[in-house]
Design a protein that fits this description.
By secondary structure, the protein is an alpha+beta fold. 24% of the residues lie in helices and 30% in strands. The strands form two sheets. Strands 1-4-5-6 form a four-stranded mixed beta sheet, with helices on one face. It has a two-stranded antiparallel ribbon with strand order 2-3. A hairpin with a 5-residue loop joins strand 2 and strand 3. It starts with a strand and ends with a helix.
Amino acid sequence: MNVDETSVCLLQGGHRGNIIVSKRGEPTERAALSQRRSYITHVEFVSDRADAQPLLPQFVIGDEHALPARQLAALQAACTTVRLIRQKSPWCNSELFASMVRAVG
């Protein structure tokens, strides 16, 4: 079994389709600095056993902005195989990681 932790930027800027040309003809990206710095963390446990993989949990860790409290229940209902964790920081820490390992058990 292995674990993978990946940081995911919520705004995939700088790519085709995200650039808007203004009336002055200048290309601009319409995203505030806070949007360009918004991240979540995806943590997944991975197994080479095909029968075990569907049973292993996945987690998405987000802050108050990425996972708003008023939408958390609806988001969790839509994410049946992924557990959402809302906390002050979207980064994994030792206490949180320990609880994830316990969830595998």
